[in-house]
Amino acid sequence: MALLLFLSSRDVIELTTNLIRIRGRSMDKELGRCLLFERRTEKGWTQQKCADETGFDFRQISQWETNERTLSLKNAFKLANSMGLDPRALYEHGFRILGR
Length: 100
Known about the structure:
Number of helices: 5
CATH architecture: Orthogonal Bundle
Helix content: 40-55%
Shape: globular
CATH topology: 434 Repressor (Amino-terminal Domain)
Low-confidence stretches: 1-5, 17-25
Number of strands: 2
Strand order of the largest sheet: 1-2
Order of helices and strands: HEHHHHE
InterPro entries: Cro/C1-type_HTH, Lambda_DNA-bd_dom_sf
Strand content: 5-15%
GO molecular function: DNA binding
Radius of gyration: 14 Å
Domain HTH cro/C1-type: 38-90
Largest sheet: 2 strands, antiparallel
Organism: Paenibacillus agilis
Protein name: Helix-turn-helix transcriptional regulator
Distance between the termini: 24 Å
Structural class: mainly alpha
């Protein structure tokens, strides 16, 4: 995990994607409920501040927070990097990637 601290979120996403491709299998993921609202309010950020800091539209932030839309792992890594969090902190029970 320490190595990942020196990588940008784009590098982590690319690395993760490449590792999944290298394994040569179809992958499923288990994601817990999105905890973006909790993490955002812990930082004292409004939805607009979160949008400004992360580059996402505030409406998208709202949809993730209300679980109208699923927060993808790719976007979780981007959000977590901008918020100074571990991406697992954005899901109720973290996340797991499963091979088939």
